[in-house]
Structures are given as structure tokens and as C-alpha cells.
Amino acid sequence: MGRNRFAAWNSLIPTQLFAWFSFLRQGPPGFGIPMSSPMPGLEHQLTSDHCQPTPSHPRRSHLWAPGIKQVLEYTMISPFLVLAIGTCLTNSLVPEKEKDPKYWRDQAQETLKYALELQKLNTNVAKNVIMFLGDGMGVSTVTATRILKGQLHHNPGEETRLEMDKFPFVALSKTYNTNAQVPDSAGTATAYLCGVKANEGTVGVSAATERSRCNTTQGNEVTSILRWAKDAGKSVGIVTTTRVNHATPSAAYAHSADRDWYSDNEMPPEALSQGCKDIAYQLVHNIRDIDVIMGGGRKYMYPKNKTDVEYEIDEKARGTRLDGLDLVNIWKSFKPRHKHSHFIWNRTELLTLDPHNVDYLLGLFEPGDMEYELNRNNVTDPSLSEMVVVAIQILRKNPKGFFLLVEGGRIDHGHHEGKAKQALHEAVEMDRAIGQAGSMTSLEDTLTVVTADHSHVFTFGGYTPRGNSIFGLAPMLSDTDKKPFTAILYGNGPGYKVVGGERENVSMVDYAHNNYQAQSAVPLRHETHGGEDVAVFSKGPMAHLLHGVHEQNYIPHVMAYAACIGANLDHCAPASSAGSLAAGPLLLPLALFPLSILF
To answer: What's the chain's average pLDDT?
Structure first.
């Protein structure tokens, strides 16, 4: 109905109005700059037949068509003018090739041809398994990331393909925790790494463990696919942009009644007296031969008040441990003398490593979480994709293969802070890492799974025209308070603002700033997770087993089945007398057998 009303208005708008709009868009002398000039804050610019965006006055304008922002800022814009602008944009942004039905028909036929090829199932043994976890990367975040990626390459964005979009199989994952309709990252991590659903706030334990109650832990520990892979002789690694003892990575190696027990400093006396160990301690002690560990979290590894190697005068960066342990030195002491183990803390050290001379790597690049990609220090902090490349170079030396967990962990943090631009750039960087991993591995022997633990109450809409900046305004005013609004909004969070008893006028703020907090419907200090299903993308051996709608804990069972690791090996064809597994296909009849029977 809204579209029809919009179209009706379109037919009434005189062409003279577009000329008047063009005049406004140009502004006073010196107001515009050539389209080829770079403009800070713009994700991209588009050219079109008669509505070409022009960068603005020194006061930054961040819609893809800066003219609209200028009109909003320098005139009292009317709904009629907004409709006129919208018409201009809508009519001019359709690429010429898309006006030809043949373009769409040929595209569909190519997609159909590719889909038919998928009938030839890849039933090989997965020598390698890589799991990419976008923390908080719900479907709306995936879509917005796709648009941003395209706009960063000066395209409209909607037609862009993420690396994960190229994966042939897609499923949906039900994310609820055993005691929570809307989950947290700890209970979900236990599900997709350990194959068992668990309570909110707990990691590496079953639902028999209650959060923060240490005495409910013993006997309820569950192991992860990282452990299963290590037990099978594979190399294993963890790469994250959060602390290495944060919720997602910790479920790979720890068993804790509380995800917040980063070091003993964060644990209650009762838990310490009952014998529970903090997560950093477990990182070093539980699975002593994890081959690669990279992320943040330095301060949890050192004695209380030990000065940080990078931030010497920052008290918040100092060590936190009450037990006086230096876990980095303990980590080193556990490594065989004939092996090459390296502890590093900056990007330069990482990029100068010779992977052929590295057996074990511990890289801790920040005292806490790593910096957002947009804020990253290019000298001291590596990107996620750089860490992934080095990790694979080290892990793939093992002839038995590897398991690698990669977390784009700060997507979640950006959303919690209402900073959509930070969140989406984190997701773009994770997609870049997915591409890097794909270029270094083979579909024939590497299963790659990309998914999220949960979503967020993040959305974008407002009938935005094709190519609208993902961080831009909707092409209309609110019909209630007569104010503009950004396409991106949150259901709740810190972006709720009232000025003079009314909703803040976003045209008066820099809504494309890296740290702009998008408006929300309900005021909260921290935005919350969403409860809807999340996508699971997969490619490689046995990827077709991830299909339809699944419980989240199904995911590691598929990965283990494909790699012939874990509790059940009956479906794996024996190879040599040495006991190694065949590199060829799994036994197909059993490969299609219900996994509920096999596990």
C-alpha cells in the first residue's frame, strides 16, 4: 500500500521540481566538489542520468546522495519534496543492464545450472574443518554487510556477493539456550562446539550446571570438536578478535559455570574455595597442545598489577591474576624442547614469523578485546584476515589436517553499543578472512562452515532507494513527528535520545560517524540479542548435511562426521594398515544415516 501511494505521488510531481532540487543540490559557489574527489564518511557514491550526488559543504553529509542531506540541513524540507527526491532516485538508479529481462533470465539460468551440479554430492573425508563464527551476525547483519561491502567497492551494494553467499548450502540454526528463549554467546558456543545445548552464561558444561554455581560443574563437563580433532591427531587453532578467554573461544577448551570468570580476579571466593579454575588458567592447562591461539586478553595471563608490554602507564591494562601465575611462561614450559613455540604481542612479530619454523603460537595483541577494525592500529594490531592466513600456514603442515575456529567477535560488541558502522565493518573483515581461507584450502578436503551464535535487534528499512548508503537516511520523514530517520535502527539500546521532549533530529548530527549510535525504540545501556534463527553456510565435504532448520547443537556433529573424528567412526572407510583414514569418499549409505542414531 505504501509503495502504491508513493507511486501515485510520483505521477503528480512536475519536472520543474527536479530542476529546483538540482539547484539546491549544487548550493552556493564552492559548495560542491567533483564526483571523483574522495569524501570522508561516504561509503560510496553513485552516478546516474539526472540525479548525480554531489559531495557537500565542509559540514559532512553522509547520505549516498549528499544533496538530500543538504536540503535536510539547510531548508525546512516538506514531505512533498522528499517524495520528489525519492522519485528522482528511484527512476535513475536502475543499471541499464537490469532493465533488460534477458539479464535476469540469464542470471537465473546460470544459478540453475550451478544448482544442478550440486546433485553430485561431495562425500569425501574432510581432512580440514574451518568454522567461522560471526558473533551476533544475524540475517539482517549479513544483508547489511553485503551492501556495505559493495559500497566500499563503489557499487550500489545490493547485488554484491559476500564470500559466504557463494557457499552452496545454507541452513537455519535454532539458537535458544536450555533456559533462555533469547540466548547468550556462552550457551550457544557450547551448542555449536560441544554438540550439547546448555544454560545461558555457561561454557563447556551441560544444562545440569547452573550459572555461577561452581559446585554444579564437576561431572557435567562436555568436550568440544577442537578436543575431538586434537585427539585424532589433527592440529587445532583458535583465532578471535575478542579475548581468547571470551565466551566463544572458551567453549572450545574450558568448562566453567560462568563465562565471566576470565581470571581468578573475576571469581567469587566461594568458587575458588570449591576448586573451580578460571578460564585463562584452563586455556593453558586443559588442552596443553593447542597449536595456534590468537586474539586479545593479555592481562588475564599475568599477576595482578604487572605492567602491560604495550600500555605501560594504563592501569586498566595491567595483569589481573590473584594467584601470581604467569600463564604465558607456563604455556611456554609445557611445550617440548625440540618444538618451536612463539609468544608474540604485535602485528610486526606476527607478519615476520616463518610458519615453517613455528609449531606452537600464542599471540595476544591487546590486554582485553582487540580494537575494532575501523580503529585498529596497523602497526601493533593484526587484522582478522592476517591472523587467519598465518594460522592456516602453520596448521596445514600436519598431514592429518586441522580444525580451526575463527571468531569475528566484535560484530556483537558493535551492536551492543548501538554502533552499527563498527559492527558491519567487523563483519566485512570477517568476510575477507573467509575469502582468504578459501584461497588457501580446497573444496575437495576442507569443510568450511560459517554461522552465528545469535542475532541482534538490528534492522534497516524505510523504503530506501537502490544504492542508498547503508548508513544513510530513509527517503521520507516520519509521518508522526515530521523528522528524518536513518535506515538502520535498533529495537532497543543506547541510541534512544530525546531532545526537547521529542525524538532527536538525526539531520543535526553526524549519523555516519564511526561511533554514531543508531536510534532505538527502547532505552537501554546495552542493546540486546535477538531470538530468531541464524543462517549456517557450508561448503566442502558433507556440507549438504547442513540443510533445513536444525538445532544449533547439530552443527559440530556434522563437522565431526565429515572429518571422521569424535565418538563414531563406523562410517569411515579404513585406508592403510597404519590406521589412517581414507582421503576418498565416506561410505555414502551410512553418510546419509540419521545422525541422531550415530551420536
So the answer is: 85
